[in-house]
Amino acid sequence: MKCLRASIALPVLWSFAGVFFAPPAHAWGCKGHQTVAYIAGKHLSPEARQFVQKLLQENPVEPSVKRYCGNALTDLLADAATWPDDVRNDRKNGPWHYIDIPRGKQKGPLEPYCGAAGCLPRAIEEQRAILKDKSAPGVKRAEALRYLIHFVGDLHQPLHAATNGDSGGNCTPVKFFRHEPLLNSLHPESEGYSPNLHQIWDTEILERDMEISNPRRYADELDEKFRTQGAAWEAAGIHVEDWIWESHERAEQRVYRAFKKKIGIEPDVNPATCADNNHIGKRMFELHLAVGEAYQNGAARIVEESLAEAGVRLAMILNEAAK
Known about the structure:
Order of helices and strands: HHHHHHHEEEHHHHHEH
Structural class: mainly alpha
Number of helices: 13
Number of strands: 4
Largest sheet: 2 strands, parallel
Shape: globular
């Protein structure tokens, strides 16, 4: 049922494209993923930079792939960052982009939360192995590189490492400043709303924080802002499972608990639509959750740190793969 997460959000977002238009359940959106890639580029070793550039230049994206974030970017790392979202429906690998760890769980092995279709930490380890395999075809290694650039970004979006019986926040309607949550008019029986909690953490909080900036400039600002912490992140080494649990804890403390109204811990279920789990969408709507300046400011600080972490840690993985 986890693989249906995107299908919950899709008709909602299309129905209200005039208010919020973003790919469904795609962490950080175009600008966020590109920002992570630009930050990573600043921390690549000369060996890794040459390795990455050569692999991407020799194995370009197929021209037939529809690029939802627009025309290809001249920076190959930033351009590669959004490709996995372009192909996720065709390749039916949506579950690779997240792991549904229910609220209230304590740190431990992640395998119990990883379904048969895969999950984010398993996908990262599999793609790392392909990237480091010198006997693998170049096109496969290039795809593994694109997946890693994207998945390390996904990992640092808190709602891609947590759920509350609400499909990672997709079934929790919220008012975002003046935008009231509206029921999906095309499929009202699904009881999905837009905007919702996952949606605003994917794109709206980030892009409001960016204001008039662009991903390259935003990356410069964040890399400078978190320069001291970045050295500590590098010194800590590569620990993907620990990073997942960090994101999960952020979801608990900075996403769900940041509202003035208490959001109770829901049963450990994965709804196919927001009408499941005892009408989770309708029940969350009746809480009348609202995001204003106070929530936005606190969330923006988490978003900034998460993107900076993702960029530095992505560079660590690529530097290690290039050795």
